[in-house]
Automatic annotation (TrEMBL):
It comes from Ceratopteris richardii (Triangle waterfern). GO terms for cellular component: lipid droplet; mitochondrion; plasma membrane. Pfam families: Sacchrp_dh_NADP. Belongs to the saccharopine dehydrogenase family. Keywords: Membrane, Transmembrane, Transmembrane helix. Signal peptide: none annotated. The chain crosses the membrane at residues 220-241. This is Saccharopine dehydrogenase NADP binding domain-containing protein. InterPro entries: Saccharopine_DH-like_oxidrdct, Sacchrp_dh_NADP-bd. The lineage of its organism: Eukaryota, Viridiplantae, Streptophyta, Embryophyta, Tracheophyta. Residues 1-62 form the Saccharopine dehydrogenase NADP binding domain.
């Protein structure tokens, strides 16, 4: 199958169970590959195992091309464009809120991926220890960022915020690490030395920042529901019998958030998401390089919003990434295992998403 086509889109998860044979076949055939996984262990393992082979074959292997993690990657790039010199960002926190006029329901495939991800957390730590030596260090200028509490009231957004261990933060950090070591040139840049300014612009859009992801919840009841789900998964996912219980009764253990069969069409149509990007930094970059640590004095807020995340936003993101690969391949790196931000950050992906119902907005700029 991979030999007969230019591009494979993989939507079959959990990817830790079913993804690697497809990646392996694409690399062997030299065929480009995109998927919609949000599983950090799978993505980072594929990078470790197949990056060099994919470079030699001249094929792109890009995971997280759905809701995980296109809105976060392209949304962060959109946010960073508003930090115009001499301003300099230091941290960006992302807050996700899902709003629906009907009950919001997730698919059990996502639930299964999350349960298996927690159960193999030790494997991910070992994998990162193995790959750390080859990954460029991310150096953020300025004072160390003040991390918000795991659960806190966000006065700026008027929402309860709960730390979210999503794939977005790990994907964004991988993009920043790649940029720190020198973003890969496109095929066109390799063949034409006069395009060096394009490579320079590619590096500029990935300013290093401290990055975190949080759920944005309207009330304390929603916070308790998310805590209920998180505690059950953390306690039971480490044991085989516990995983069986979690996968057999997803509705109970997720407080109704995940159900077998997923949402119906009315529930899908009624749901929307908003991701706020709240960045803090310096009105003058010289403040970040002062001999004494100076706290940020400027805050910029942007947002990405769109329709339901799993069945509408995810296919929009995946298909638009695919169309760029098919129509503008020379503007992309020749080959390798990369993040969406590394591959699509300097393309017209944001404009394509806006034309298909996903909004990117500047909200505010203020001194703090």
């Amino acid at each position: 199958m991979c030999k007969r086509t230019k591009l494979v889109l993989n939507c079959v998860g959990p990817f830790r169970l079913y993804g690697e044979p497809v990646v392996s076949a694409c690399v062997e055939a030299g065929t480009d590959y995109l998927d919609i996984t949000g599983e950090p262990e799978f993505m980072e393992r594929m990078e470790l195992r197949y990056h060099e082979a994919a470079r030699e074959k001249g094929c792109l292997i890009v995971s997280a091309c759905g809701y995980d993690s296109i809105p976060a990657e392209i949304g962060l790039i959109h946010h960073l464009k508003h930090w115009i010199a001499p301003c300099l960002p230091n941290s960006v926190d992302c807050f996700l809120q899902i709003i629906s006029s009907k009950k919001f329901v997730g698919n059990t495939g996502t639930w299964e991926s999350a349960v298996l991800g927690v159960s193999s957390a030790s494997d991910l730590r070992k994998l990162r220890a193995q790959s750390r030596k080859s990954r460029a260090r991310i150096t953020v200028p300025g004072a160390p960022a003040k991390k918000p509490a795991l659960i806190h009231w966000n006065k700026h957004l008027s929402l309860w915020s709960v730390f979210l261990p999503s794939a977005d933060s790990s994907v964004v950090r991988r993009t920043m690490s790649t940029a720190a070591s020198g973003a890969p040139p496109s095929i066109a840049e390799e063949e034409d030395p006069n395009l060096a300014p394009v490579a320079y612009a590619r590096k500029l859009i990935y300013m290093p920042v401290h990055f975190g992801v949080y759920s944005g919840l309207p009330n304390i009841f929603s916070v308790l529901c998310q805590m209920w789900m998180g505690l059950w998964v953390m306690c039971l996912a480490m044991f085989a019998f516990g995983r069986k219980l979690l996968l057999r009764f997803p509705e109970f253990f997720s407080a109704g958030l995940f159900q077998k069969g997923g949402p119906n069409e009315e529930q899908v149509a009624a749901a929307r998401f908003t991701m706020w990007f709240v960045g803090k930094g310096y009105s003058d970059s010289t403040m970040a390089t002062a001999s004494r640590a100076v706290q940020p004095d400027l805050q910029i807020t942007t947002a990405v919003s769109g329709p339901e995340i799993g069945y509408i936003t995810t296919p929009i993101c995946l298909v638009q990434c695919a169309l760029i690969v098919l129509s503008d391949r020379r503007s992309l790196p020749r080959g390798g295992v990369y993040t969406p931000g590394t591959v699509f950050g300097t393309t017209d992906l944001q404009q394509r998403l806006e034309q298909n119902g996903i909004s990117f907005d500047f909200l505010s700029r203020k001194s703090i």
